[in-house]
Amino acid sequence: MRILWIFLCFTTLLFAKIEQFKTIQSDFTQKVTNDQNKTIVYQGSFYATNDKKALWIYEKPVAKKIYFNNTRVLIIEPELEQVIITTLESTPNIAQLLQEAKEISPNKYSTKYQETTYTIFAHKESIDKVVYRDKLDNAVEILFSNQTTNLFLDEELFRAEIPKGYDIVRE
């Protein structure tokens, strides 16, 4: 559940910064460090459109796909043979984040939603990284690489298919 919250908050924040793009595609490395200085590193690919669709494909350390649209999040976890379906009620309003993000120094922006402050590092119309502390006081850093924008992304990419036999959890 902790990881889900991280993704919900971050993906909505990312949409706030990519609204100028039709599409964005990037590799990512996400580091989550707890208060005992233990770090988990996730790697994968990220795809998003300016109409609020997104897909995170996690490759390491475990395979996972997380699909976002305007109203819900669907997480497919093959190792658990499980799908989690939830809503976006607890995430910040995209338009609000755009309006409230302020440049605090060149190429560095900050915005706050509820109790979380997000710092965005961007240059040349690309997002370099996002850092914040989640509700469990984990330090989260998401680094982006091999980023491209405004390429054609087939709508089929964002259609999640629930594998037969998987448990479905609704939250």
Tags for this model:
single chain, 171 residues, mainly beta, outer membrane lipoprotein receptor (LolB), chain A, 12-stranded mixed beta sheet, 2 helices, globular
Write the layout of secondary structure elements.
Layout: H1 2-18, E1 23-33, E2 39-49, E3 54-60, E4 64-68, E5 72-77, E6 82-87, H2 94-100, E7 102-105, E8 108-113, E9 116-123, E10 126-133, E11 139-149, E12 167-170
Parallel strand pairs: 6-12
Antiparallel strand pairs: 1-2, 1-11, 2-3, 3-4, 4-5, 5-6, 7-8, 8-9, 9-10, 10-11
The gyration radius over C-alpha positions equals 15 Å
Annotated CATH topology = outer membrane lipoprotein receptor (LolB), chain A
Shape: globular
Main sheet summary: 12 strands, mixed
Low-confidence stretches: 15-19, 91-99
Order of helices and strands: HEEEEEEHEEEEEE
Gross CATH architecture: Clam
CATH superfamily: Lipoprotein localisation LolA/LolB/LppX
Structure, described:
- The protein contains 2 helices and 12 strands; from the N terminus they run H-E-E-E-E-E-E-H-E-E-E-E-E-E.
- With 171 residues, it is mainly beta.
- It has one domain (2-170): outer membrane lipoprotein receptor (LolB), chain A.
- It has a 12-stranded mixed β-sheet with strand order 7-8-9-10-11-1-2-3-4-5-6-12, covered by helices on one side.
- A hairpin with a 4-residue loop joins strand 2 (39-49) and strand 3 (54-60).
- The model is unreliable at 15-19 and 91-99 (pLDDT under 50).
